[in-house]
């Protein structure tokens, strides 16, 4: 099921993603100012952040540990690393360089498996510092173009980042979206980042090119400013079509950085790659090499929690639902899979519990307030035919509204009692007799007519009949 | 003139560093930079096959700081030192541009 259109003809999409995530540390990468989103502008600044003369950076140990978690969760090799200066002039980085891991990144050669089984290679996941935030004043829509001046907030400057660079292994907009969503789930589960795209703590740049299958890679464009999981796919597909149109009309794709505009659904030229890319990297003389010991790496690896893929497999085994089903996916994403398993352990039916948690617990935390035993009891009543699916839903709504409750008591209070099949069959016969016209149409395959008959049974049973059972009985009688 | 560094190299580095050099200055810098590189050429002449590359003169790795917040600088004091400020932020000329 795709919400994207796909590419025309036999064009193949080739995408690599660069994802920046802000690490969930208390302080910045090289200084002790708070790493906190949403504070008053320029209140989390210090001599290192401002690049004042003589200020010296000191590496945040916890940031290194979180970066190793990211690498290990993505099956990377953790290796000794050094920091470089990436030189460029931009007011959001007042010292005129960004400190980053260049030719010796901390994490290399990993992979991430998408829920559909496709494996995406991870080239590297390196540490670097974030830049400050520019607000462009004047011009249109807060963009750089046409601005009169810019206002700079350096609270974000120096915040620790990990940049996760995938190999160009992604072949569809859906897989790109799945990659971002799975990566996000991993980052959250391991506590490395809150990975909120809307707050900018996770940012996605996409390298997009197109080619005919089996031919060399085409010229790529880098798409920036992709601000939601959904727009990842939209931006990629728009850009691929733009490139195909260029090539098919006899033009060539120019290597560029392009800006995704969410409002008009298009990408725009940001800058053409020329010597803007000449960053004159050199080793940061103010920092010594980073060389995590094997013991430290193993300690971090051993402390990793169960990752989303393993959680989905576990929940799938317990409930009988496919690991890539929507129910399993969203319950694991909410971290409520442990809860479903607790319900099962309390004697409940895991498959019914999964459905209820998926449907009714969307607003709840990973540890819902409703006692697992209450939900277990509900699924037992349902499974034993004491409650129809519709009735169970109503009882569940009560339970959720009160953070718990005895399903038997609630069902009794609502006047729910199960109907046995024989009395139901009598009601079905009555319905057929009451509307022979609908029955005739139903026998001729008119689905709407069935609705009318089911409606009659529901009415005469005062809503207690199980809709599925009524349908089954009608179908039985048709033969 | 040597083949180690050319006037074009110097002009490019100057542009990247936002330095506005006159042709005379470029000529002078080219000669000076070339002289510096000559010293490195002496190192190049040595057989260093058995010497591990040194990224730092100090025999240190893993110098860390605990992830604990310390007081920083006062915003008003810092902004007062900037050429221009507005709404608690540094005010700077417009930069870069989206071409369309």
Automatic annotation (TrEMBL), chain A:
Any one biological process term the GO annotation gives: translation
Keyword Ligase among UniProt keywords: yes
Keyword presence, Transmembrane: no
Domain Asn/Gln amidotransferase, first and last residues per copy: 338-478
Keyword terms of this UniProt record: ATP-binding, Ligase, Nucleotide-binding, Protein biosynthesis
Pfam families: GatB_N, GatB_Yqey
A molecular function GO annotation: ATP binding
Annotated SUPFAM superfamilies: GatB/YqeY motif, Glutamine synthetase/guanido kinase
Catalysed conversion reaction: L-glutamyl-tRNA(Gln) + L-glutamine + ATP + H2O = L-glutaminyl-tRNA(Gln) + L-glutamate + ADP + phosphate + H(+)
Family recorded in the similarity comment: Belongs to the GatB/GatE family. GatB subfamily.
Protein name: Unannotated protein
Automatic annotation (TrEMBL), chain B:
Gene3D superfamilies given in the database record: Glu-tRNAGln amidotransferase C subunit, N-terminal domain
Alphabetical GO biological process terms: glutaminyl-tRNAGln biosynthesis via transamidation; regulation of translational fidelity
InterPro entries xrefs: Asp/Glu-ADT_sf_sub_c (IPR036113), GatC (IPR003837)
Protein name: Unannotated protein
Protein source organism: freshwater metagenome
């Amino acid at each position: 099921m795709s919400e994207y259109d796909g590419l025309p003809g036999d064009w193949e999409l080739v995408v690599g993603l660069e994802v920046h995530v802000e690490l969930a540390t208390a302080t910045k990468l090289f200084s002790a100012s708070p790493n906190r989103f949403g504070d008053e502008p320029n209140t989390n600044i210090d001599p290192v952040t401002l690049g004042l003369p003589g200020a010296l950076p000191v590496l945040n140990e916890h940031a290194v540990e979180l970066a190793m978690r990211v690498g290990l969760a993505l099956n990377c090799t953790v290796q000794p690393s050094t920091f470089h200066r990436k030189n460029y002039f931009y007011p959001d980085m007042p010292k005129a360089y960004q400190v980053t891991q260049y030719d010796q990144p901390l994490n290399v050669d990993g992979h991430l498996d998408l829920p559909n089984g496709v494996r995406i290679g991870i080239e590297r996941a390196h540490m670097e510092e974030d830049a400050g935030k520019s607000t462009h004043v004047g011009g249109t829509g807060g963009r750089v173009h046409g601005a009169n001046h810019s206002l700079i907030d350096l609270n974000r400057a120096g915040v620790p980042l990990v940049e996760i660079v995938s190999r160009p292994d992604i072949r569809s907009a859906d897989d790109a979206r799945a990659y971002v969503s799975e990566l996000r789930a991993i980052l959250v589960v391991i506590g490395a980042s809150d990975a909120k795209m809307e707050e900018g703590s996770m940012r996605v740049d996409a390298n997009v090119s197109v080619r005919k299958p089996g031919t060399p890679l085409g010229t790529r464009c880098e798409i920036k400013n992709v601000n939601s999981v959904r727009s990842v796919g939209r931006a990629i597909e728009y850009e691929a079509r733009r490139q195909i149109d260029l090539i098919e009309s006899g033009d060539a794709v120019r290597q560029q950085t392009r800006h995704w505009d969410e409002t008009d659904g298009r990408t725009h030229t940001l800058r053409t790659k020329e010597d803007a890319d000449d960053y004159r990297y050199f080793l940061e003389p103010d920092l010594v090499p980073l060389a995590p010991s094997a013991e430290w790496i193993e300690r971090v690896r051993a402390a990793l929690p169960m990752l989303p893929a393993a959680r989905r497999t576990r929940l799938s085994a317990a409930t009988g639902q496919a690991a890539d089903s929507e129910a399993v996916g969203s319950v694991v994403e909410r971290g409520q899979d442990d809860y479903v398993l607790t319900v099962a352990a309390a004697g409940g039916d895991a498959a019914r519990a999964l459905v209820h948690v998926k449907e009714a617990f969307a607003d709840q935390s990973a540890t819902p307030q409703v006692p697992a035993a209450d939900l277990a009891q509900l699924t037992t009543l349902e499974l034993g035919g004491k409650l129809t699916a519709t009735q169970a839903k109503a009882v569940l709504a009560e339970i959720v509204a009160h953070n718990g409750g005895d399903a038997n008591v609630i069902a009794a209070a609502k006047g729910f009692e199960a109907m046995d099949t024989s009395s139901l069959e009598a009601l079905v016969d009555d319905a057929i007799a009451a509307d022979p016209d609908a029955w005739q149409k139903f026998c001729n395959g008119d689905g709407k007519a069935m609705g009318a008959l089911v409606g009659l049974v529901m009415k005469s049973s005062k809503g207690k009949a199980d809709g599925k059972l009524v349908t089954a009985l009608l179908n039985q009688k048709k033969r | 003139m040597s083949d180690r560094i050319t006037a074009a190299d110097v002009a490019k580095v100057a542009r990247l560093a936002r330095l506005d050099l006159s042709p005379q200055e470029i000529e002078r810098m080219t000669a000076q930079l070339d002289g510096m590189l000559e010293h490195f050429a002496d190192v190049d002449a040595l057989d260093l096959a058995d010497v591990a590359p040194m990224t730092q003169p100090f025999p240190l790795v893993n110098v860390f700081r605990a992830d604990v917040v310390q007081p920083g600088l006062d915003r008003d004091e810092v902004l007062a030192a900037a050429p221009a400020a507005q709404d608690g932020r540094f005010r700077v000329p417009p930069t870069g541009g989206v071409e369309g």
